[in-house]
Amino acid sequence: MMHDGVLTIISVSFHSKIRERMSFASTIGELRKSGYTVLSVKDEVRKNLVEKLHSRETLFPGIIGFEDTVIPAIVNAILARHDIMLLGLRGQAKSRIVRQLPSLLDEYIPIVKGCEINDNPFKPVCKTVCRPGPRMRRCYPGRVAPPRGTPR
Fold it and tell me: Which residues touch 90 (CB under 8 Å, ≥6 apart)?
């Protein structure tokens, strides 16, 4: 079990109260106190879609002519946590829709520094962070470093 390990925030975009508390979390203990919970991708996309629907944001900007057909079907599939397969002829905005789906993911996620795969900070499986012990898996926090792709 990992205790107050060092943590880096790659990003967070959920309820503002939790976001404010989590943005300053630098240890696993602080992250737990912030109320952050790890969600599956489908649950995260669904949660962010519900937030966009409540705030009446445009879901897929630049997609014209599918507001009454394709977009409601995609919204229903996401809300029901279904898998989605887009089929259609050329020029029917399939690629454009797929390119905009990541906007429904959280902008930032917390990771443990030193972890190569940026897995769940509460239950890491990364070999550089967790080392097997005689009876139980023992996890060691990694070093603090800025996330990849961020300016130093």
Answer: none
Q: What is the pLDDT of residue 119?
A: 80
- Beta-bridge mates of residue 130: 139
Mean pLDDT per segment of 10 residues, for the chain of length 152 residues?
Answer: 42 44 69 86 95 94 90 95 93 93 88 80 77 50 44 48
Q: Is residue 94 part of a domain?
A: yes
Q: Residue 119: which of 3, 4, 7 has the closest Cα?
A: 7
Q: Is residue 133 included in any domain, yes or no? A: yes
Helices 41-54 and 70-79 cross at an angle (nearest 10°) of: 120
User: How many alpha carbons lie under 13 Å from residue 24 in its C-beta half-sphere?
Assistant: 7
The answer to whether residue 148 is domain-embedded is no
Dihedral sign, Cα of residue 67, residue 46, residue 5, residue 1:
negative
Q: In terms of Cα–Cα distance, which of 72, 120, 71, 141 is closest to 100?
A: 71
End-to-end alpha carbon distance in the chain:
31
pLDDT at 132: 57
